[in-house]
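Hey,

The postdoc asked me to send both predictions to you directly instead of through the lab channel. I've kept everything plain text so nothing gets mangled by the mail client. Protein one:
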Amino acid sequence: NAPDPEWGTENVDGKEIKLENVTFSYDGKRDVLKNVDMTFPEKGMTAIVGESGCGKSTVVNILVGAFRPQKGDVTVGGKQLEKLSRENWYSHLSAVSYNTYIFNESVRDNFKMAKESVTDEEIYAALEKVNLKEFIEENGGLDKVITEDANNISGGQKQRLALAIALVSDKDIYVFDEATSNIDIDSEAVIMKNIKAISESKSVIVISHRLA
């Protein structure tokens, strides 16, 4: 396993993210990314679309700071990502993937981990945005405890819950990595409409194997 990347102590200023001339390899032999340039604006939606294995998730891992490229620069608001404080960077960022972890706690407590001051009204509003409000209301409400590994909800419901929690967190930058892969078409349409609304004032990065 690769060692944990080192971090600095600086705080995030601007929110525009840039990958400049980035090259990354897992084994030092085959480049998954080679001389890649990408710009993700402070506001608006950017989609990265491609088939499995083309390097989309590698880009996500570099964006969130889990991996460091062997070559090139990753900057946030003009600052090198590795010079930022990890805690400060994560306070601006929300990443939702196809297998985001849901805690073995009540629905309400899962939301409170993202935003301690969240109200029940805000939670239900977020659940409505992902087509999950009715299901939660009819199955124990906000006191419903999500079991270990989220075995008492479906894969699609787990993804929708993770998305609702992200919406409540009110971060500056959202990364959705195949975040709607298990979700039915009708729910996905509702969710994408709400994600597009967020992108009017936030930076939204959507990674998918197909254009929605």
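Protein two:
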Amino acid sequence: MLLTSYLKSAWNIDIADQITNRSSRLSLWSMLLVTSLVSISSSASIYDKNCLSGGDTEDKFCNRTVLSIVIGCVGTVSSLLVVASKFANSDAPFIMESFVGALLFVLQAFGVAYTTSDNGPGAPLGNLYYSSWFSFVCSFFIGSSCFEEHQAHILMKEQEKEEHRFRKRFQQRSDKRRRANESGMARFTYEED
């Protein structure tokens, strides 16, 4: 509380306002960042305990643990970049966010399949199991939110085009009526003279 008050008064940074004014996906990206960090730490601990301490590093189990570490690192770095870009600029590039979201969804799908399967390091219930599934769910919601926003943007563009066509037709009809009225008035005044 003291830190937020200091940041607000000294640097004119309102953290609560910054968070609420950012996109709805900021909380999803933040959750993905946290769950990816948990996944990295759990995987590294499992790798250290089972693979480095006299274990067979060529084993399926160890390879899947390394995969979990790599996916966690990619998820952490990607989430951190998106969160930082959203804090730096509330209009973070949508295409970049969509691409990263789709990439992470695919990676998390493979990660959760290999990590939590019978031969995987996340097979027993624990931090790795839950963080893998939660990361997958977060990446799914990020992807679906980006898709919905893209569809809404396409619909809005189509509505704008239709509205533009309608205005153009209305303007053309108005111009025709005005010209017809002017020519009719011209005939009427000519006939009166």
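Summary for protein two, as requested: DSSP finds six helices and no strands in the chain.

Thanks,
C.
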